[in-house]
Amino acid sequence: MMAMTKTPRKTLPTGIGKVLKRLHYPLDVILLCVRWYVAYSLSLRNLEEMMAERGIEVDHSSVHRWVIKLLPVFEKAFRNRKRPVGKSWRVDETYVKVKSQWKYLYRAVDKAGNTVDFLLRARRDKAAARRYFEKAIDYNGEPETVTVDRSGANLAALEALNAGRSTPIKVRQNKYLNNVVEQDHRAIKRIIKPMMGFKDFRCARIILSGIETMHMISKGQMNDAGVTRSPVDQFYSLVA
Fold first, then answer.
1. Model pTM?
2. Where is the Integrase catalytic domain positioned along the sequence (predicted)?
């Protein structure tokens, strides 16, 4: 079995030194486990077993702790390097189980299929929809057109937002046009399926942010300053 040694402080990337303080595993092992968890359909115990096959003893609870500590750092860094999205958005919600109850993951993609933004909410109502649209606009600018399904809550939220605008956002209700975002949901659902639901809302929000971040990187949505790198290297560069 490979012996674990404490990662020297001087080897830690600048942005995560404080986050990784007091963790006693090599940095490359920590980052590998975190990336695999949000990139592939794996449970925490799957990762524990995969590391054991490589002679590395890692408890699944340690992997979970790394995931919760690191993913907010990755998301924050990615948002600073995310490419602009288009002005025509497709918005939809999908179900996510948290503490054995269904919650709602609001998501949108643009006409080209690029992820606009995401937000996990406890309820599916006008207030939740409005909070999602406000977040998406804050980070991505105002769209020209938003396509939603027949949800009255989404329509009511957009009408409330348009009430204070001189140039209102054009709203369309079209199930067919929303197929692109419904198909994009599948990539996220495929990753979370082995997790068998989340234990609490905070952890669900953090883990989903990591999955969404990795998904956006895989779709080429990270501005890498003209450097050609694989999605794997781009993910690691977020903590450099």
1. 0.90
2. 80-239
In this structure, what DSSP letter does residue 16 have? G
pLDDT tens per residue across all 240 residues of the chain: 344 444 444 445 555 666 666 667 888 899 999 999 999 999 999 999 999 999 999 999 999 999 999 999 999 999 999 999 999 999 999 999 999 999 999 999 999 999 999 999 999 999 999 999 999 999 999 999 999 988 889 999 999 999 988 899 999 988 777 788 999 999 999 999 999 889 999 999 999 999 999 999 999 999 988 888 999 999 999 887
d(C-alpha 12, C-alpha 7), whole Å? 8
Domains of the chain, first to last = 9-80+223-237 (no CATH), 88-200 (3.30.420.10)
Q: Quick one: which of 78, 45, 93, 79 has its CA closest to 189?
A: 93
Output the CA torsion sign for 69, 70, 76, 77: positive
The tokens for 84 are 């602009």
The DSSP secondary-structure symbol of 222 reads B
* Integer-rounded Cα radius of gyration of the chain: 19
SS3 176: coil
Task: Please tell me the number of Cα atoms within 13 Å of 187 on its side-chain side.
Answer: 20
Report how many helices (DSSP H) and strands (DSSP E) the chain contains, helices first: 8, 5
